[in-house]
Write the structure tokens for this entry.
Amino acid sequence: RSSLSPLHKINAVINSYAIARQREIETLQKNAEFRREFIADISHELKTPIFATQGYIHTLLDGAMDDKAVRMKFLKRAAKSLDSLDVLVQDLLTLNQMESGVIKFNFSDFDLKELILEVMEQLEHKASKRKVAIHFDFDQEKNHTTHADRQKIFRVCQNLIFNAVKYNHEGGDVKIHLKVQKNSLLVEVKDNGPGIPPEDLKRIFERFYRVEKSRSKKEGGTGLGLAIAKHILEGHKSKINVASTLGKGSVFSFSLPLEKEKKTSEKEAPTAQ
Ligand code: ADP
């Protein structure tokens, strides 16, 4: 069928081999660049809590030890810096595992409404400190069972709800909606905080990207939460959506599959003692 001469055929094979090799080289170069950037970012982020801890300890050694009140103040600050270092390292490990695809997902059936209530309970103290009210809207009559990795989805909800609290104005509101759709459950976390500028909106899922550096660091943010959340949802073949209006607030949302079979049996099951 082919009218190509043997020489042409050899040429075509060599060409396609060269193109494939070129692509491989480009991928390797991109990976190397990615690694370099990642290491630069990490070093930069690690420096902050390390420098802070060093500063407090050296101040203590230089004489602040003698006064009990001052000693306690600096020790508490050093402990806080070390705690944030610990959170950062944990987040980095998680993100690294996610990006290299080695992390395992443990899927099970669970009630998404219950999970959200648990997250709210955990964040209650932080919200009341900022005078932020968290409202949760769901239909009591409906089934909210999903099939997902509970621990990881907990992490996603924790991140979205905590962000809605910590980036909100004092006295602001956070509204969580859990909507039952045909085959899925939609979670929406809405705040009436400052909103996110359009040019930042497309970058907030990048590791270490922060809109307001000072605010995020003050609140103990690592700039990794949304990057981790995005990976977790990708592992569920889902994604996070965000819409934001400057001065009005932001809405983050995602959906998970609805497990329909459990509906009646669960509703009527006697409560175990
Ligand atoms: P961080 O640990 O800094 O909170 P995230 O990855 O969770 O990191 O968020 C990235 C950045 O996106 C934050 O530093 C903040 O600037 C911005 N952001 C996230 N959620 C909100 C929100 N609800 N309102 C305003 N800005 C937000």
About this structure: The chain is about 55% helix and 15% strand.
